[in-house]
Write a structure and sequence with these properties.
Layout: H1 11-18, H2 23-33, H3 37-48, E1 53-58, E2 63-67, H4 69-74, H5 87-91, H6 93-106, E3 112-121, E4 127-138, E5 143-151, H7 153-175, E6 179-184, E7 189-192, H8 196-199, H9 204-207, H10 218-233, E8 238-246, E9 252-263, E10 269-278, H11 280-302, E11 306-310, E12 316-319, H12 321-327, H13 331-334, H14 353-365, E13 370-377, E14 383-395, E15 398-407, H15 408-431, E16 435-439, E17 445-448, H16 450-456, H17 460-463, H18 482-494, E18 499-506, E19 512-524, E20 527-536, H19 538-560, E21 564-569, E22 572-576, H20 578-584, H21 588-591, H22 603-620, E23 622-630, E24 636-645, E25 655-661, H23 663-693, H24 698-712, H25 715-718, H26 721-749, E26 758-761, H27 762-772, H28 774-780, E27 783-786, E28 792-795, H29 797-813, E29 822-830, E30 833-840, H30 870-880, E31 885-888, E32 897-901
Parallel strand pairs: 27-29
Antiparallel strand pairs: 1-2, 1-5, 3-4, 4-5, 6-7, 6-10, 8-9, 9-10, 11-12, 11-15, 13-14, 14-15, 16-17, 16-20, 18-19, 19-20, 21-22, 21-25, 23-24, 24-25, 26-28, 29-30, 30-32, 31-32
Helix pairs in contact: 23-26, 24-26, 27-29, 29-30
Length: about 900
């Protein structure tokens, strides 16, 4: 289609011809127009030069009355006669169906217009995406459609590439370490990439609608606003503008900001788009590098030895001031020269200087540092004997040689300076108010100050060569062995982790004192040295003991009260008194650090108290509510909870609670309500049972089944597939109904027929149940895994076997569709009680059905086998044992786990 030259007709003329104008225009114009043929002729030349496909169609038959040259070219139509082609023959059945549908809908009016997008294919399978415009008109009482198709393939491809580009850009933006942003013309953020969380600690939603200045300290915001105002006024781009921002946690970071203006197509300025880069680390590195360079230069220039830097060609490229002194030459005389030029022709050992340099250079090239004596020539011609240390160093990507030159005089001067430095260090070392000792990796003390002798009450000879661990008691206050604990601490220090800790030491007279120790690692002349600072905190510990004594007295008072008291932070138990421990049956050790959820019978009660804390305590400072708490033995205690904030100004300080046992007050009422509820439940079930079996279904059911079986054996049924099918369905139905009646009778007996409970190994119950369902397990191929040892329980053995049979069959049924069905059976502990479980990897279920499945006849899948009574029987049996059963599942196809509790064995 691209071979036609582009032609752009007058849009108003096209409106008149094709009906593409406003609806109000069409309604006022077309009743008058009546689609005159003379107007078609006027536009034929224009249409034949158009790249769009124009076709005139006779409706409803779909005959093509006329088409433009672009249409003929696209479908390779050379010899065309009017009404010899149908539109569906060229445009395809799908396109024709859409047009005919719009035509049918438009017949109630004398004109209509429709648009849609479809795919058109030429005979050569050259397919395009086309935007179709179709107008329906009456031409001299003849219903006609004008079909216009425009190739939008390139447009769709561009849209796809645009979406792909946008997705790539979005992915790139969200994976960059830099924060991408956009602000509007008023400077408010309209977009912030997720990296804002990493850079400033804010989520993008927290920043959108605010200005960048809102995240800067006030002084910085004023400075940047001044710098940026001129740029923004002239809509100029900017780059690498450094600014200080305050993170959400209050820390400051240095940001490097670059941005470009966003200009709309009409030329309006609509904001800026840019990137923020956290350069805090870089700035710190640059600062450290500058300091390091300054320190290096200071060290370089102040060194007592001559230092030369040479390139690989052994040309001197730098030297320090001491070098000038040693050689008695200017910097210009040394830089660019070669050490051979600064040396006599022969060295004292008779070797030529140039030959010896070649040998040394070869060794240094092999990576072997060199230390040797060398004779140099001063500027005045005199000779000096020096010691040279030569090694390779890496500066950037360039390898250089560094030579350190020292003569005898300089060495003595250096030794003198070193002694002076050691004297200063010793003065500082000895005047410290804390003990300072140095020891090697073997924990052998190699030095200590006078304060160490004073605090430890020992002589220097008694300390030097000893170990800090030998100056300590055998065990530390936490009961750990001193040597084991000490070596563990030293290991951390040697791994680069300085340690601060409390420690007990022994004085020379045998008394023990408490100390606070700071232990770190030093490197001295490539030797690892550990430095310990020891501070006597005996007095501070005495004060702490006095405070603890006071707290013990208060604790005694609190523990003496019969009312339960405790403290929780974020609903985690921090402290309880003896009264509460006795009330609930748990020891403090069993409760401390645990969630208060362990005290409640269910999530609803737990959440109720949580609502009280939120609505009353956190608002008013105090609150109270009634709640049932679970005793360690599983029994429930009715209580009155009174709660108060530890600190009304700081909610994170926790909650103080008091607990009053009101069980006896509510027991009578609870028992009455429990009895009524149980009677109502049993009455309802008995009524349902009576209703089901009241008509004596079983007897006529057996009669139906018997006569049906007789009919099956007759020749009439045997010779008729239809009768065989019908009798088979009757027999299946009677079988299912008899099973239903049997299970209803079984359900009605539970609670009335009770076997004496006994101590029985749960493993024996499980084996008996597995034997009963072995056929089902074999047919489904399910694997049963016993995950834990099982305890002895005090139960009605027959009924619990029935529970396990139902649960295992249920698991096998709903895993039968899997290639590897799996059933796991085990027991865990919750709040001191054994909780048994049967877990499968089957179809699972939504949380909304967790309670429903235990209802009578409540089958989630009506088409599944079974009557829907099995889980009701399980629930009834477990509840008759005074325990509970529940199900947990994360959702469809994620499996189910049935949990239930049973009484523990009796003594």
């Amino acid at each position: 289609m691209e071979k036609h030259s582009p032609y752009n007709p007058n849009p108003e003329d096209l409106k008149k011809l094709l009906g593409l104008g406003e609806r109000s225009f069409r309604k006022s114009y077309y009743p008058k127009l009546k689609f005159h043929l003379t107007e078609i002729e006027l536009f034929r030349t224009m249409l034949d030069n158009s790249q769009d496909l124009y076709i005139l169609i006779d409706m409803p038959a779909g005959d093509i009355i006329d088409m433009n040259q672009a249409s003929r070219d696209f479908w390779n139509i050379t010899d065309y006669a009017p009404n010899s082609l149908f539109l569906k023959d060229v445009a395809g059945q799908e396109c024709w169906s859409i047009i005919f549908k719009h035509y049918s809908e438009s017949r109630s009016e004398d004109q209509s217009f429709a648009e849609f997008i479809t795919t058109l294919c030429s005979p050569d399978s050259d397919c395009i995406h086309a935007e179709i415009h179709i107008g329906f008109r009456k031409l001299e009482n003849r219903e006609t459609a004008i079909f216009i198709a425009r190739d939008i393939s390139q447009h769709i491809q561009l849209e796809y590439k645009l979406r792909e580009s946008e997705e790539k850009f979005r992915a790139l933006v969200e994976t960059l370490n830099e924060m991408i942003w956009e602000v509007d013309a008023n400077g408010y953020y309209t977009y912030v990439s997720p990296v804002s969380k990493m850079v400033l600690g804010y989520e993008p939603e927290e920043m959108i609608g605010k200005k960048p200045f809102d995240f800067m300290p006030e002084y910085e915001a004023e400075r940047i606003a001044g710098e940026f105002s001129e740029l923004a006024r002239n809509h100029r781009a900017f780059s690498e503008m450094e600014n200080i921002n305050r993170c959400k946690d209050g820390s400051l970071v240095v940001i490097e900001t670059s941005g470009v203006p966003i200009i709309a197509q009409n030329g309006d300025f609509i904001g800026y788009r840019g990137v923020d880069r956290d350069i805090t680390g870089r700035k710190q590195t640059e600062s450290a590098l500058r300091q390091s360079e300054a320190k290096y230069r200071l060290l370089f220039e102040s060194a007592n030895d001559g230092i030369l830097l040479l390139n690989e060609d052994i040309s001197i490229i730098d030297c320090n001031t001491k070098t000038l002194d040693i050689y008695g030459r200017t910097r210009e005389q040394i830089i660019g020269s070669n050490p051979i030029q600064l040396s006599p022709e022969y060295q004292p050992d008779g070797q030529r200087s140039d030959e010896k340099v070649s040998i040394i250079h070869q060794h240094i090239s092999d990576g072997v540092p060199q230390f040797f004596e060398w004779q140099h020539v001063r500027g005045d011609g005199s000779l000096i004997n020096t010691e040279v240390s030569l090694s390779t160093i890496k500066i950037g990507n360039e390898t250089m040689l560094q030579a350190v030159i020292r003569d005898v005089t300089d060495r003595k001067k250096t030794e003198s300076a070193l002694r002076q430095s050691e004297a200063k260090y010793r003065l500082l070392f000895e005047s410290a108010s804390d003990c300072i000792f140095l020891h090697n990796e073997d924990l052998t003390i190699i030095d200590c100050n006078n304060k160490t002798l004073e605090i430890f009450g020992r002589t220097r000879d008694q300390i030097i060569g000893s170990s800090p661990l030998k100056l300590s008691p055998e065990t530390q206050p936490d009961g750990q062995n001193t040597f084991e604990k000490g070596f563990a601490i030293v290991s951390k220090v040697l791994n680069g982790e300085p340690q601060i800790f409390e420690w007990q030491h022994t004085r020379g007279d045998g008394t023990i004192f408490d100390a606070e120790v700071s232990l770190g690692m030093l490197s001295v002349d490539n030797t690892i040295i550990l430095q310990g600072l020891v501070r006597d905190i005996s007095e501070r510990k005495k004060e702490q003991l006095a405070l603890q004594k006071s707290e013990r007295i208060l604790s005694s008072v609190l523990h003496a009260t019969p009312i339960g008291l405790g403290k929780a932070i974020n609903r985690i138990i921090q402290w309880i008194n003896t009264g509460f421990s006795n009330m609930i049956g748990y020891t403090p050790e069993e409760m401390l650090g645990k969630s208060t959820r362990m005290l409640y019978k269910d999530d609803a009660t737990y959440n109720k108290v949580g609502d009280c804390i939120t609505q009353q305590v956190f608002v008013q400072g105090v609150g109270s509510t009634e709640a049932q708490l679970r005793h360690k033995d599983g029994s429930l205690i009715d209580t009155l909870l009174c709660l108060a904030c530890v600190d009304n100004e700081d909610k994170s300080a926790g909650i103080i609670f008091s607990v009053v046992n009101i069980t006896e007050q509510k027991k009578a009422k609870h028992e009455r309500e429990k009895l009524i509820a149980r009677l109502e439940m049993q009455n309802a079930e008995l009524e349902q049972y009576a209703y089901t079996v009241s008509h004596d279904l079983k007897s006529p059911l057996i009669t139906i089944e018997g006569f049906t079986q007789l009919a099956v054996r007759t020749d009439l049924v045997k010779n008729s597939k239809e009768l065989t099918h019908h009798t088979s369905r009757i027999l299946n139905a009677t079988t299912k109904m008899r099973q239903l009646l049997d299970e209803l009778l079984e359900l009605s007996r539970i609670g009335r027929v009770v076997n004496e409970p006994e101590n029985v190994d749960f493993k024996d119950i499980l084996h008996e149940a597995l034997e009963l369902v072995s056929g089902r397990l074999h047919n489904t191929g399910a694997t049963v895994i016993m995950e834990t040892p099982f305890p002895i329980v005090y139960v009605d053995r027959k009924r619990i076997v029935e529970v396990m049979t139902n649960l295992i069959e249920n698991a096998a049924k709903f895993t039968a569709h899997l290639k590897q069905p799996e059933i796991r059976i085990g027991v865990t502990e919750l709040n001191g009680e054994n909780v048994f479980y049967v877990r499968d990897n089957g179809i699972g279920l939504n949380p909304e059905y967790h309670e429903k499945i235990f209802g009578l006849f409540d089958k989630l899948d009506p088409a599944s086998e079974g009557s829907g009574i099995g889980l009701s029987i399980v629930k009834r049996i477990i509840e008759l044992h005074g325990r509970t059963v529940w199900v947990e599942s994360d959702g469809p196809n994620l499996g189910c786990t049935f949990y239930f509790t049973l009484p523990a064995k009796t003594k």
